[in-house]
Amino acid sequence: MNDPLPWPQPVTLRGPLATLEPLSREHHDSLAAAVSDGQLWKLWYTNVPAPEGMMAEIERRLNLQASGSMLPFVVRDANDTIVGMTTYMHIDATHKRLEIGSTWYAQRVQRTGLNTQCKLLLMSHAFETLQCIAVEYRTSSLNLASRRAIERLGAKLDGVLRSQQRHRDGTLRDTCVYSILQHEWPAVKSHLEFKLQSRD
């Protein structure tokens, strides 16, 4: 008897402003170039890899994929240039819940429609194809830009996990946990589609 396929399976998701494709080791050079735009790894409250640590980060994400707890993607912009990474993570195949996270983008595409497009693609697939009951977002309580971006998506704050982990510099991190539930998705989807259309 064959073992069941892991959930979820790798997939490529496409929209007008972004394409998400399964991460591979061949993406290394493009990702190292992308992360250099803005020197994102210098933000102490994030876990963005430095260029010299990119292969280790790719291997980490692929190992988590092999264990069934993560499905990592690279992000391409409308010009087919790799500009970042994102993932389905903390995957719970039994209860059909997952988190969207470990996301970073090159500075030049931040505060554009690209992040909205990526979240629309990821959540559409999660709720409509994978039939998730909830999608989570987590971030440091001190990462105010990330918290505002998550709230603009329509996610609700579930609570704060105090001293849940450590920042890269060793300081304790309080983690804000947000979620969007399956019954909330239609309204959130309409909101995200409106945001994208208003950019046209």
Automatic annotation (TrEMBL):
**Per its UniProt record, what SUPFAM superfamilies does this chain match?**
Acyl-CoA N-acyltransferases (Nat) (SSF55729)
Q: Does the keyword Transferase apply?
A: yes
Please give one Gene Ontology molecular function term for this protein: acyltransferase activity, transferring groups other than amino-acyl groups
Q: List the keywords (alphabetical).
A: Acyltransferase, Transferase
Q: Tell me, what's a Pfam family for it?
A: Acetyltransf_3
Could you say which EC number(s) this protein's record lists? 2.3.1.-
Domain N-acetyltransferase, chain residue ranges per copy: 18-177
Keyword check for Acyltransferase? yes
Top-level enzyme category: transferase
Q: Tell me which InterPro entries the record gives.
A: Acyl_CoA_acyltransferase, GNAT_dom
Superkingdom of source:
Bacteria
Q: Which Gene3D superfamilies match?
A: 3.40.630.30
- Kindly provide the name given to this protein in its UniProt entry: Ribosomal N-acetyltransferase YdaF
Q: Which species is the source of this protein?
A: Rosistilla carotiformis
Upper lineage: Bacteria, Pseudomonadati, Planctomycetota, Planctomycetia, Pirellulales
